[in-house]
């Protein structure tokens, strides 16, 4: 091992140590470069219009595949995972309206950016002049791919990153920087012959293993879609009004999920006590107050009301038909 190799190893160990000290659950590092294997997959996915109305997915195709186009002289991609699996799931009663676990607390963009900012500052204070940028699901970065290349897990058949120790309920963030580091190796795919996520998806959004038609996903319908929800989706939402966790909930690897340690991800008392009537009767004022720092702001008040009415009207029709 050369002196340069030793320096890279020491710096990488420092980065990972500081990542854990800043509250992240896992940290891995990969070499910044062109994602050759992903290029045809992404192109095929876009050509099949699986992005639906998410037009931004087709933007910056070259930057999405090469981080060196996002950060000048980029050498390394530092990937981190932050667990958001809750100690208790909402709602408590069967038949109640549901939101995705990732939306229980404060918007993860705020939380991860703060932690990544502290990590980048620690790196700069320890090593010196390091040029880098922080990314949290807000730029054309294929975060799950980079996390997998960094040895933090593998991309499962439901297209989420899976970690053998804690499942898939993670937020992913990156620091892309010009620092030369020691790189981790990817891990094998441990999905095997399991098809539980494909079998459980009520809208058949997982068209084949490892391929998701985003335009059919309940999360897409309840968050990204800005117009009326298609009638063919009626009766398939299973009470989800913001996001969906079905493919993750049925995944055997999530039996290893552990409650998170991030106070900001805990639901407020108001949200924890929400009943179906609270959802149905929510006013714009209550929405703005309860979800002031929440991911639910993304769907806006009108979008949330649309989702609730779609689910509740479906239940009413089902009851009347019975």
From TrEMBL:
Cofactor binding note from Swiss-Prot or TrEMBL: Binds 2 [4Fe-4S] clusters per monomer.
EC number annotated for this UniProt entry: 1.17.99.6
Localization: Cytoplasm
UniProt name for this protein: Epoxyqueuosine reductase
KW Iron-sulfur (keyword) present: yes
InterPro entries: 4Fe4S_Fe-S-bd, 4Fe4S_Fe_S_CS, QueG, QueG_DUF1730
Binding positions ([4Fe-4S] cluster 1): 191, 194, 197, 251
Enzymatic class: oxidoreductase
Primary localization: cytoplasm
């Amino acid at each position: 091992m050369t002196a340069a190799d030793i320096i890279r190893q020491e710096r990488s160990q420092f980065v990972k140590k500081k990542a854990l000290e800043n509250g992240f659950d896992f940290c891995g590092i990969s070499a910044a470069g062109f994602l050759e294997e992903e290029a045809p997959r992404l192109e095929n996915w876009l050509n099949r219009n699986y992005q639906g109305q998410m037009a931004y997915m087709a933007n910056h195709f070259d930057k999405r595949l090469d981080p060196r186009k996002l950060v000048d002289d980029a050498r390394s991609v530092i990937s981190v995972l932050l667990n958001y699996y809750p100690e208790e799931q909402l709602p408590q009663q069967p038949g109640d309206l549901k939101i995705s676990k990732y939306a229980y607390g404060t918007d993860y963009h705020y939380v991860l950016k703060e932690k990544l900012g502290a990590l980048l500052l620690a790196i700069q204070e320890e090593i010196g002049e390091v040029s880098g940028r922080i990314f949290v699901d807000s730029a054309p970065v294929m975060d799950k791919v980079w996390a997998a290349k960094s040895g933090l897990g593998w991309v499962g058949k439901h297209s989420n990153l899976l970690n053998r120790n804690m499942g898939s309920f993670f937020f992913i963030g990156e620091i892309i920087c010009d620092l030369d580091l020691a790189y981790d190796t990817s891990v094998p795919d441990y999905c095997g012959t399991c098809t539980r996520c494909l079998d459980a998806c009520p809208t058949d959004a997982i068209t084949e293993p490892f391929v998701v038609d985003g335009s059919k996903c309940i999360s897409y319908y309840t968050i990204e879609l800005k117009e009326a929800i298609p009638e063919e989706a009626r009766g398939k939402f299973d009470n989800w009004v913001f996001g969906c966790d079905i493919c993750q909930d049925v995944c055997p690897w999530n039996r290893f999920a552990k409650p998170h340690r991030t106070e900001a991800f805990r639901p407020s008392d108001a949200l924890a006590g929400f009943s179906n009537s609270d959802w149905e009767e929510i006013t714009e004022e209550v929405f703005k107050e309860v979800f002031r720092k929440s991911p639910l702001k993304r769907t806006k008040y009108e979008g949330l009301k649309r989702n609730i009415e779609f689910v509740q009207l479906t239940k009413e029709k089902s009851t009347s038909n019975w």
